[in-house]
Design brief:
The protein is mainly alpha-helical. It contains twelve helices and no strands.
Protein backbone atom coordinates (compact mmCIF):
# COMPACT_ATOMS: atom_id res chain seq x y z
CA UNK A 1 0.00 0.00 0.00
CA UNK A 2 2.80 2.41 0.91
CA UNK A 3 4.55 1.67 -2.38
CA UNK A 4 1.35 2.26 -4.34
CA UNK A 5 0.75 5.61 -2.65
CA UNK A 6 4.34 6.68 -3.24
CA UNK A 7 3.96 5.81 -6.93
CA UNK A 8 1.00 8.20 -7.38
CA UNK A 9 1.92 11.37 -9.29
CA UNK A 10 2.19 14.44 -7.07
CA UNK A 11 0.53 17.56 -8.45
CA UNK A 12 1.94 20.96 -7.64
CA UNK A 13 -0.28 23.31 -5.63
CA UNK A 14 -1.44 26.10 -7.93
CA UNK A 15 -4.06 28.83 -7.71
CA UNK A 16 -6.40 27.22 -10.28
CA UNK A 17 -6.38 23.97 -8.27
CA UNK A 18 -7.04 25.88 -5.04
CA UNK A 19 -9.91 27.71 -6.75
CA UNK A 20 -11.37 24.38 -7.85
CA UNK A 21 -11.12 23.11 -4.29
CA UNK A 22 -12.87 26.18 -2.90
CA UNK A 23 -15.55 25.91 -5.60
CA UNK A 24 -16.31 22.36 -4.46
CA UNK A 25 -16.39 23.41 -0.81
CA UNK A 26 -18.64 26.37 -1.55
CA UNK A 27 -21.28 24.28 -3.32
CA UNK A 28 -21.04 21.37 -0.86
CA UNK A 29 -22.64 23.50 1.87
CA UNK A 30 -26.42 23.48 2.12
CA UNK A 31 -26.26 27.00 3.56
CA UNK A 32 -24.92 28.23 0.21
CA UNK A 33 -28.09 27.32 -1.68
CA UNK A 34 -30.38 28.47 1.12
CA UNK A 35 -28.69 31.85 1.66
CA UNK A 36 -28.37 32.62 -2.05
CA UNK A 37 -32.06 31.80 -2.51
CA UNK A 38 -33.10 33.90 0.49
CA UNK A 39 -31.02 36.87 -0.68
CA UNK A 40 -32.52 36.77 -4.17
CA UNK A 41 -36.05 36.39 -2.79
CA UNK A 42 -35.56 39.34 -0.42
CA UNK A 43 -34.33 41.57 -3.22
CA UNK A 44 -37.07 40.55 -5.64
CA UNK A 45 -39.90 40.19 -3.12
CA UNK A 46 -39.53 43.54 -1.39
CA UNK A 47 -38.82 45.24 -4.72
CA UNK A 48 -41.98 43.93 -6.33
CA UNK A 49 -44.04 44.79 -3.25
CA UNK A 50 -42.75 48.36 -3.19
CA UNK A 51 -43.21 48.71 -6.95
CA UNK A 52 -46.81 47.54 -6.75
CA UNK A 53 -47.52 50.14 -4.06
CA UNK A 54 -45.44 52.95 -5.58
CA UNK A 55 -47.42 56.12 -6.16
CA UNK A 56 -50.61 55.10 -4.36
CA UNK A 57 -49.62 56.47 -0.95
CA UNK A 58 -49.17 53.04 0.65
CA UNK A 59 -46.26 52.09 2.87
CA UNK A 60 -44.15 49.49 1.00
CA UNK A 61 -42.91 48.03 4.28
CA UNK A 62 -39.29 49.07 3.99
CA UNK A 63 -37.09 50.43 6.78
CA UNK A 64 -38.39 53.69 8.30
CA UNK A 65 -36.91 56.75 6.63
CA UNK A 66 -35.87 54.70 3.61
CA UNK A 67 -39.01 55.05 1.53
CA UNK A 68 -38.36 55.14 -2.23
CA UNK A 69 -38.63 58.54 -3.83
CA UNK A 70 -38.35 57.38 -7.46
CA UNK A 71 -39.55 54.34 -9.45
CA UNK A 72 -36.06 52.85 -9.68
CA UNK A 73 -35.55 53.16 -5.93
CA UNK A 74 -38.89 51.41 -5.43
CA UNK A 75 -37.73 48.38 -7.40
CA UNK A 76 -34.56 48.17 -5.29
CA UNK A 77 -36.25 48.55 -1.89
CA UNK A 78 -35.05 45.08 -0.91
CA UNK A 79 -31.37 45.89 -1.41
CA UNK A 80 -30.56 46.38 2.28
CA UNK A 81 -32.23 43.09 3.22
CA UNK A 82 -30.36 41.19 0.49
CA UNK A 83 -27.15 42.97 1.51
CA UNK A 84 -27.28 41.38 4.95
CA UNK A 85 -28.01 37.93 3.50
CA UNK A 86 -25.09 38.06 1.07
CA UNK A 87 -22.87 39.46 3.83
CA UNK A 88 -23.80 36.60 6.14
CA UNK A 89 -22.97 34.12 3.37
CA UNK A 90 -19.52 35.68 3.04
CA UNK A 91 -18.97 35.37 6.78
CA UNK A 92 -20.02 31.71 6.77
CA UNK A 93 -17.68 30.92 3.88
CA UNK A 94 -14.63 31.86 5.94
CA UNK A 95 -15.52 31.92 9.63
CA UNK A 96 -17.41 28.65 9.26
CA UNK A 97 -14.17 26.82 8.49
CA UNK A 98 -12.58 28.17 11.66
CA UNK A 99 -15.52 27.07 13.80
CA UNK A 100 -15.42 23.52 12.41
CA UNK A 101 -11.61 23.27 12.35
CA UNK A 102 -11.63 22.49 8.62
CA UNK A 103 -9.35 25.47 8.03
CA UNK A 104 -6.42 23.41 9.37
CA UNK A 105 -6.80 20.93 6.52
CA UNK A 106 -7.04 23.75 3.98
CA UNK A 107 -3.88 25.43 5.23
CA UNK A 108 -2.02 22.12 5.48
CA UNK A 109 -2.81 21.45 1.82
CA UNK A 110 -1.78 24.99 0.83
CA UNK A 111 1.21 25.93 3.02
CA UNK A 112 1.48 29.45 1.56
CA UNK A 113 -2.01 30.11 2.99
CA UNK A 114 -2.89 33.26 1.05
CA UNK A 115 -3.97 31.39 -2.13
CA UNK A 116 -6.80 29.94 -0.03
CA UNK A 117 -8.12 33.43 0.72
CA UNK A 118 -7.75 34.64 -2.88
CA UNK A 119 -9.48 31.51 -4.16
CA UNK A 120 -12.37 32.09 -1.77
CA UNK A 121 -12.63 35.68 -2.98
CA UNK A 122 -12.67 34.61 -6.64
CA UNK A 123 -15.28 31.90 -6.16
CA UNK A 124 -17.51 33.98 -3.91
CA UNK A 125 -17.38 37.16 -6.01
CA UNK A 126 -18.14 35.29 -9.24
CA UNK A 127 -21.13 33.39 -7.90
CA UNK A 128 -22.65 36.24 -5.91
CA UNK A 129 -22.26 38.80 -8.70
CA UNK A 130 -23.99 36.52 -11.21
CA UNK A 131 -26.87 35.78 -8.81
CA UNK A 132 -27.19 39.41 -7.70
CA UNK A 133 -27.09 40.73 -11.27
CA UNK A 134 -29.78 38.30 -12.40
CA UNK A 135 -31.99 39.19 -9.41
CA UNK A 136 -31.40 42.92 -9.94
CA UNK A 137 -32.35 42.69 -13.62
CA UNK A 138 -35.48 40.69 -12.80
CA UNK A 139 -36.70 43.01 -10.05
CA UNK A 140 -36.06 46.14 -12.10
CA UNK A 141 -37.82 44.83 -15.21
CA UNK A 142 -40.78 43.37 -13.33
CA UNK A 143 -40.98 46.29 -10.91
CA UNK A 144 -41.16 48.90 -13.65
CA UNK A 145 -43.81 46.84 -15.42
CA UNK A 146 -45.88 46.95 -12.21
CA UNK A 147 -45.42 50.72 -11.92
CA UNK A 148 -46.59 51.20 -15.49
CA UNK A 149 -46.47 54.52 -17.31
CA UNK A 150 -44.60 56.27 -14.49
CA UNK A 151 -41.80 53.70 -14.52
CA UNK A 152 -38.32 53.81 -16.04
CA UNK A 153 -36.85 51.82 -18.90
CA UNK A 154 -33.47 50.24 -19.56
CA UNK A 155 -32.62 53.02 -22.02
CA UNK A 156 -32.99 55.80 -19.44
CA UNK A 157 -29.74 57.48 -18.28
CA UNK A 158 -28.16 55.81 -15.26
CA UNK A 159 -30.48 52.80 -15.19
CA UNK A 160 -27.94 50.23 -16.39
CA UNK A 161 -25.42 51.59 -13.87
CA UNK A 162 -28.00 51.32 -11.08
CA UNK A 163 -28.76 47.68 -11.93
CA UNK A 164 -25.12 46.64 -12.29
CA UNK A 165 -24.15 48.83 -9.35
CA UNK A 166 -26.70 47.12 -7.12
CA UNK A 167 -25.19 43.76 -8.03
CA UNK A 168 -21.75 45.19 -7.28
CA UNK A 169 -22.91 46.60 -3.94
CA UNK A 170 -24.35 43.23 -2.90
CA UNK A 171 -21.18 41.44 -4.00
CA UNK A 172 -19.05 43.96 -2.14
CA UNK A 173 -21.04 43.52 1.06
CA UNK A 174 -20.48 39.79 0.76
CA UNK A 175 -16.74 40.33 0.31
CA UNK A 176 -16.73 42.55 3.40
CA UNK A 177 -18.37 39.69 5.29
CA UNK A 178 -15.85 37.23 3.88
CA UNK A 179 -12.95 39.43 4.94
CA UNK A 180 -14.40 40.04 8.41
CA UNK A 181 -14.98 36.31 8.85
CA UNK A 182 -11.34 35.56 8.05
CA UNK A 183 -10.12 38.45 10.20
CA UNK A 184 -12.26 37.88 13.31
CA UNK A 185 -12.67 34.09 12.91
CA UNK A 186 -16.04 34.30 14.64
CA UNK A 187 -19.37 34.03 12.84
CA UNK A 188 -21.41 36.08 15.38
CA UNK A 189 -18.67 38.67 15.75
CA UNK A 190 -18.20 39.12 12.00
CA UNK A 191 -21.95 39.38 11.27
CA UNK A 192 -22.40 41.90 14.08
CA UNK A 193 -19.47 43.97 12.82
CA UNK A 194 -20.81 43.88 9.27
CA UNK A 195 -24.23 45.06 10.45
CA UNK A 196 -22.62 47.86 12.43
CA UNK A 197 -20.44 49.00 9.55
CA UNK A 198 -23.15 48.92 6.90
CA UNK A 199 -26.09 50.23 8.95
CA UNK A 200 -25.41 51.45 12.49
CA UNK A 201 -22.57 53.81 11.56
CA UNK A 202 -24.82 55.79 9.21
CA UNK A 203 -27.65 55.88 11.77
CA UNK A 204 -25.37 57.07 14.57
CA UNK A 205 -23.76 59.63 12.29
CA UNK A 206 -27.16 61.00 11.28
CA UNK A 207 -28.07 61.47 14.95
CA UNK A 208 -24.81 62.61 16.51
CA UNK A 209 -22.53 64.09 13.87
CA UNK A 210 -22.78 67.91 13.64
CA UNK A 211 -24.08 69.33 10.38
CA UNK A 212 -20.70 70.94 9.79
CA UNK A 213 -19.22 67.44 9.56
CA UNK A 214 -21.78 66.21 7.04
CA UNK A 215 -19.08 65.85 4.38
CA UNK A 216 -17.49 63.09 6.46
CA UNK A 217 -20.68 61.00 6.47
CA UNK A 218 -20.60 60.53 2.70
CA UNK A 219 -17.40 58.49 3.09
CA UNK A 220 -19.06 55.83 5.25
CA UNK A 221 -19.35 52.42 3.53
CA UNK A 222 -23.14 52.50 3.23
CA UNK A 223 -23.20 56.06 1.86
CA UNK A 224 -20.40 55.36 -0.60
CA UNK A 225 -22.20 52.25 -1.79
CA UNK A 226 -25.44 54.16 -2.30
CA UNK A 227 -23.59 56.81 -4.32
CA UNK A 228 -22.72 54.50 -7.20
CA UNK A 229 -26.12 52.79 -7.31
CA UNK A 230 -28.27 55.93 -7.28
CA UNK A 231 -29.58 57.29 -10.57
CA UNK A 232 -30.12 60.79 -9.15
CA UNK A 233 -27.20 62.09 -7.10
CA UNK A 234 -27.91 64.10 -3.95
CA UNK A 235 -26.01 67.34 -3.37
CA UNK A 236 -24.22 65.97 -0.30
CA UNK A 237 -23.20 62.61 -1.80
CA UNK A 238 -20.11 61.42 -3.67
CA UNK A 239 -20.08 60.99 -7.43
CA UNK A 240 -20.72 57.42 -8.67
CA UNK A 241 -17.06 56.73 -9.45
CA UNK A 242 -15.87 58.28 -6.19
CA UNK A 243 -18.41 56.20 -4.27
CA UNK A 244 -17.19 53.07 -6.05
CA UNK A 245 -13.58 53.90 -5.21
CA UNK A 246 -14.33 54.52 -1.52
CA UNK A 247 -16.43 51.37 -1.18
CA UNK A 248 -13.78 49.35 -2.98
CA UNK A 249 -11.19 50.80 -0.61
CA UNK A 250 -13.08 49.43 2.40
CA UNK A 251 -13.20 46.00 0.79
CA UNK A 252 -9.50 46.06 -0.06
CA UNK A 253 -8.57 47.18 3.46
CA UNK A 254 -10.66 44.43 5.06
CA UNK A 255 -9.27 41.71 2.81
CA UNK A 256 -5.76 43.06 3.33
CA UNK A 257 -6.16 42.86 7.11
CA UNK A 258 -7.54 39.33 6.78
CA UNK A 259 -4.57 38.33 4.60
CA UNK A 260 -2.15 39.75 7.17
CA UNK A 261 -3.71 37.75 9.99
CA UNK A 262 -3.88 34.55 7.95
CA UNK A 263 -0.19 34.89 7.08
CA UNK A 264 1.01 35.91 10.54
CA UNK A 265 -1.06 33.90 13.03
CA UNK A 266 -1.80 30.23 13.63
CA UNK A 267 -5.08 28.68 12.55
Amino acid sequence: MTTAIAALPRKRVSLPRVVKSEWIKFWSLRSTYITLGIAALLLIGFGLLASSLYGDGSDPGGPPGNEPTDPIGASFTGTNFALLAFGALGVLFTAGEYSTGMIRSSMAAVPKRLPVLWAKVAVFATVVFVVALAASAVVFTAGQALIGDGGASWSDPGVARAVVGTAGLLTGSGLLGLGLGALLRSTPGAITTLFGVMFLLAMVAALLVPESWSDVVQYLPSEAGDAFTAVTQADDSLSPMAGLAVFGGYIAATLGAAAWRIKRSDV
